[in-house]
Amino acid sequence: MPVQAINDNYQGEVLDAKANFAGNVIIYFGWDEHLMFCAPKAFPLPPQMTFADVISQIMPEAFGQHPEFNEIDWSQAQWQLDRRPISPKPEQTLAELGADHKSCFRLRTPGLTGYKGMGI
Amino acid sequence: MAKKLNIKEKYRLLTRDLDWEFSYQDRKKAFPYEEFEGIKITDWSKWEDPFRLTMDSYWKYQAEKEKKLYAIFDAFQQNNGHLNVSDPRYVNALKVFLTGVSPLEYQAYQGFAHVGRQFGGVGARVACQMQAIDELRHVQTQIHAMSHYNKYFDGLQEFSHMHDRVWYLSVPKSFFNDARAAGPFEFMIAIGFSFEYVLTNLLFVPFMSGAAHNGDMATVTFGFSAQSDEARHMTLGLEVIKFLLEQHEDNVPIVQKWIDKWFWRGTRLLTIVAMMMDYMLPNKVMSWKEAWEVYFEEAGGALFKDLARYGIRMPKYSDVIEKEKEHLSHQAWWTFYTHGHAAGFHTWIPTDEELDWLSEKYPDTFDKYYRPRWELAKELEAKGERFYTSGLPQLCQTCQIPMLFTEMDNPGEICYRDHVHEGERYHFCSDGCHDIFVDEPEKYVQAWLPVHQILQGNCGGPGVEEVLSEYYRMNLGVDNMDMKGSPDEKRWKQWKGVA
Ligand SMILES: [Fe+2]
Ligand SMILES: [Fe+2]
Ligand SMILES: [Zn+2]
User: Is the pLDDT at B165 greater than 80, yes or no?
Assistant: First the structure.
């Protein structure tokens, strides 16, 4: 049963429907082994944004405070999108990569394992 | 003249013989909420009244307690009781309590008033009505106790406004909203049983002994005054579950599902208490892990052994919960420390002594996973770059807590769970929160997630600063940010005559 309700066929209003974000979609980014950031972060982004722009504009805003951020070799970065491994090309857009509203990217940076190698 | 009734007779008259017989009205219309949850009640008269209290004796007891309580509040104020707290950092625990917990007392009042009308059995109705009045008293006495601190410390002045809006306060608020939006029986398993009977000890005992250890007589006093009410609430919670389980065997799986759900939700909610105990009390009582072992594993374990004869087992994911006791408080305080710019209270790096205490209390996890975070924070602070994280966190759709919890078989990795419902993707902090959503998606798609509301432009803005100051009504630079250099700290030093 989709809900235990006193009325039949009760339907909830989807508060975070894509239509409510003025053309943007919400995209989450998490950086594995870097728990200096306590949780992944949320950004409203246009689906046509290229991955190159994600790297140059969104990544510094999300993770630039980390002492290892400037050491990231983006050509070696490993990505997951909604739990599937992907190899994004810089010119691909979020939409072309298959990222939709409330999709989640996870970043792994081989060789960089956080403050003092402790996953922080 | 009629003979004076003894208390038992009075109670019988109050709870039995004054109830209506439905001779010309449809009983089902009078109690419309009683059946839709699937719970079967065959005989309300089997309800064992847990606390045979009549209205007149109830008022008498409560009035006496109030008299004593307010006499102590008066003395506390006249003697500037706030100067006796152990350390001004302590008051931040009170800010969390007043903004996060006291409004739940009000929601408990609303919830019990509702079920106190809707149950078909008059004994259950009377017990719930009395608890409703108790809960209203609790919120009032807590506000009155804290009002003295509000004169001297920042961050208490907008507690009720903040409860409705601030990002982290949506966690306790939505917890109670979930319970109140459920049917009356689920509400009773959620609040009466899971929360009051099992988990409330983990809230009140540490909190009240924390207050005692930290020189806060106002809080200790309201704690004592609420204690006899709580004893009544716990008895009611236990009676409810036994009654439901004895009424019909079909009730067992429904009750078990509610137990699974509400213990999970309860442990998520108590994360904030874990953090208060381990990080916010300058004089420690016991660690969260120790409290969890005493009040949940031992006391709760015995209870579930007792319920096994009805076919009830330990809540689902108890094994995960057991491992999490080593991690919760550390993950939560790091979250608040790094979001200290967006919190309505002060945060700080634990002192060296406190870090050592944490290592001693958490020998298997603290040095390995958490001490390095504080070393990093110290390094940054020393460079004049006190760390406040940028951006907004991803939240769990069910508990609404940022996705800060890690995998218990790999505590260095964030726990990601998701589910697609009718084309929309939803994210969860845990299997527990995932399962709750999947069971009733039409309920949780409606979650008012603070981060998404900000990003939709529903909380003012455009920037986070305006959201914090205008929509949340935080006094920026005063209520929030680090304890070091705060106006709270400055005033304290002046009062104490230290530089
Ligand atoms: Fe209460
Ligand atoms: Fe209570
Ligand atoms: Zn959750």
Answer: yes
Inter-residue contact A46 to B427 (CB < 8 Å): no
- Distance of alpha carbon B359 from alpha carbon B368, whole angstroms: 9
Residue with tokens 């988990």: B199
Interchain pair B391, A41: CB under 8 A: yes
Q: If we measure between CA atoms, which residue out of B377, B267, B398 comes closest to residue B333?
A: B377
CB–CB contact B393 A42 (8 Å)? yes
> For residues B47-82, b (16+ Cβ closer than 10 Å) or e, as one string?
bebbbbbbeeebeeebeebeeebeebbeebeeeebb
How many whole angstroms from B265 Cα to the centroid of ligand 2? 17
Q: How far is A12 from chain B (nearest CA, A)?
A: 5
- Pairing between strand B392-393 and A41-45? antiparallel
> Tokens 């009720």 map to which residue?
B160
CB B187 within 8 A of CB B176: no
Q: What is the Cβ-side half-sphere exposure of residue B403, based on CA atoms within 13 angstroms? A: 32
Give residue B266's Cα distance to chain centre: 8
Question: Which residue in the set A14, A18, A39 is minimally distant from B393, CB to CB?
Answer: A39
* Both structure tokens of B430: 């845990």
**B36:A6 CB<8 A:** yes
How many angstroms separate the CA atoms of B130 and B236, rounded? Answer: 11
Tokens of B61: 């007891």
- How many Å lie between the centroid of ligand 1 and the Cα of residue B276? 19
Number of H helices, E strands in chain B: 24, 5
CB count in 10 Å sphere of residue B107: 20
Question: Above 70 in pLDDT, residue B417?
Answer: yes
User: Buried b vs exposed e over B395-405: b needs ≥16 C-beta within 10 Å?
Assistant: bbbbbbbbbbb
Task: Decide if A101 and B403 are in contact by the 8 Å CB cutoff.
Answer: no
Helix (H, G, I), strand (E, B) or coil at B479: coil
Q: For the segment B71-123, what is each residue's pLDDT rounded down to a tens digit?
A: 999 999 999 999 999 999 999 999 999 999 999 999 999 999 999 999 999 88
- Weakest mean pLDDT among A26-30, A39-43, B42-46: B42-46
For each of the domains in chain B, give its residue range(s) and CATH number, in order of start: 12-329 (1.10.620.20)
Rounded Cα gap, residues A35 and B371, in angstroms: 12
CATH class of the domain whose range is A46-120: alpha beta
Taking Cα atoms as reference points, which of B174, B204, B184 lies closest to residue B33? B184
Taking alpha carbons only, the member of B201, B345, B183 closest to residue B273 is B201
Distance CA B402, CA B396 (A): 6
Neighbour tally for B181: CB within 10 Å: 16
> In degrees rounded to 5, what are phi and psi of residue B249?
-70, -25
Domain boundaries along the sequence of chain A = 46-120
The answer to whether B31 and B120 are in contact (CB under 8 A) is yes
Identify the sign of the CA torsion A54, A60, A66, A72: positive
Secondary structure (3-state) at B288? helix
User: Cβ(A46)–Cβ(A57) under 8 Å?
Assistant: no
Of A12, A18, A41, the CB nearest to B443: A12
Tell me the chain A residues in contact with residue B338 when contact means C-beta distances shorter than 8 Å.
36-38
In this structure, which amino acid lies at residue B341? Answer: H
**Owner of token pair 């990222």:** A99
Q: Classify residue B204 as exposed, middle or buried by CB count within 10 Å of its CB (0-12, 13-18, 19+).
A: middle
